């Protein structure tokens, strides 16, 4: 038992190294051009199994069906773990009946709506903040309503392979971190959140978006499927550039068709890198920069983007090289991508 305890502690350490394992090949019924930099990601299955086998002190024990709030949510102001008053568990009923407070800065957070608001401005009465137009657009009730009723389906014209295939591609990337906690950031109406939660692959799935109306729409879809109401699934409002989670606390992060909407992609990917556990995996999809959606993608005009765009354009669009450079600059390794026309799925891993 003593040897097993030492193994579990080592598996949980941020500095532990693991031998690389071969990444299973992703399914691809649609033709994709794959640029895999390394054969695969090390697996976290052994570490998760060792940790689950130890009956350690309550404050360090992670339970698959009822994770403590202090092990998941953190204050977006100071990143200290939150104290929960209410029933434990990462599920909608438990979080709705709970109150959360930071012991360090004394800020309180509530879930009086159907989601837990963990933004810095949560609870403010006088102060308000306007985000860029591309961010505010998705806070509209109309856009939230239309997102799964025609808006997202139009992405197929740019090469997106369809929801089922896109989900399976992401699942293949996430296989090394199966059994862990997954964040679906910029989740929108939750079309992938629901698939991740129903897959049974993860101990908990947290749907995160800045848009209140997207989260409300997500909840409406969840209510239509009774199996998800009591699943290990939570809805959280948060800023992608200020994630309310402790460093090295999350196993997997998914961002579907999102990075081009973020006000500061570099700040967002840096935050993603911060909260991922060692060995954790980030998977994102977006539209590649083309002369049609971004004239500055043309080589001769790219220097002008520093003067004119992208702050003065609707969205941020990137080349393959820019996405890889961004991931590496934020500390992610084992970069990999799959491309079909203007669609790209890219992935990186937090180093051990």
From TrEMBL:
GO aspect biological process, one term: methylation
Key words, A-Z: Chloroplast, Methyltransferase, Plastid, Transferase, Transit peptide
Any one GO cellular component localisation term in the record: plastoglobule
Annotated ranges, domain Methyltransferase type: 183-283
Identification of the protein by name: Methyltransferase type 11 domain-containing protein
Source organism superkingdom: Eukaryota
Compartments reported by the entry: Plastid, Chloroplast, Plastoglobule
Pfam families found in the cross-reference section: Methyltransf_11
Source organism (scientific name): Eragrostis curvula
The keyword Plastid is assigned to this record: yes
GO MF annotations in UniProt: S-adenosylmethionine-dependent methyltransferase activity
Keyword Protein biosynthesis carried by entry: no
Main location per the UniProt record: plastid
């Amino acid at each position: 038992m003593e040897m097993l305890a030492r193994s579990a502690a080592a598996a949980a350490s941020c500095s532990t190294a693991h031998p690389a394992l071969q990444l299973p090949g992703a399914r691809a019924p649609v033709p994709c051009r794959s640029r895999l930099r390394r054969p695969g990601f090390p697996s976290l299955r052994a570490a998760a199994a060792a940790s689950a086998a130890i009956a350690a002190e309550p404050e360090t024990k992670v339970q698959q069906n009822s994770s403590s709030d202090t092990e998941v949510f953190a204050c977006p102001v100071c990143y200290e773990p939150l104290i929960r008053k209410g029933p434990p568990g990462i599920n909608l009923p438990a979080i709705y009946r709970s109150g959360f407070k930071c012991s360090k800065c004394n800020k309180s957070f509530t879930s009086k709506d159907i989601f837990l608001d963990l933004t810095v401005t949560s609870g403010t009465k006088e102060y308000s903040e306007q985000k860029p137009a591309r961010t505010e657009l998705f806070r509209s009730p109309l856009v939230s309503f239309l997102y799964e009723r025609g808006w997202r389906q139009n992405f197929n014209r740019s090469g997106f392979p369809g929801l089922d295939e896109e989900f399976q591609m992401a699942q293949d990337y996430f296989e090394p971190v199966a059994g862990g906690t997954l964040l679906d950031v910029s989740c929108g109406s939750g079309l992938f959140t629901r698939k991740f939660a129903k897959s049974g692959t993860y101990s908990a799935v947290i749907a995160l978006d800045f848009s209140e109306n997207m989260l409300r729409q997500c909840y409406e879809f969840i209510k239509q499927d009774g199996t998800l109401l009591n699943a290990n699934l939570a809805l959280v409002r948060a800023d992608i550039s200020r994630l309310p989670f402790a460093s090295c606390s999350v196993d997997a992060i998914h961002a579907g068709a999102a990075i081009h909407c973020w006000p500061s992609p570099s700040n967002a990917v840096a935050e993603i890198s911060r909260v991922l556990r060692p060995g954790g995996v980030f998977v994102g999809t977006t539209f590649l920069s083309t002369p049609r959606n971004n004239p500055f993608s043309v080589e001769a005009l790219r220097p002008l983007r520093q003067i004119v765009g992208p702050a003065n354009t609707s969205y941020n669009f990137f080349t393959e090289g820019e996405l890889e450079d961004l991931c590496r600059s934020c500390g992610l390794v084992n970069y990999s991508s799959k491309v079909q026309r203007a669609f790209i799925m890219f992935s990186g891993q937090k180093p051990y």
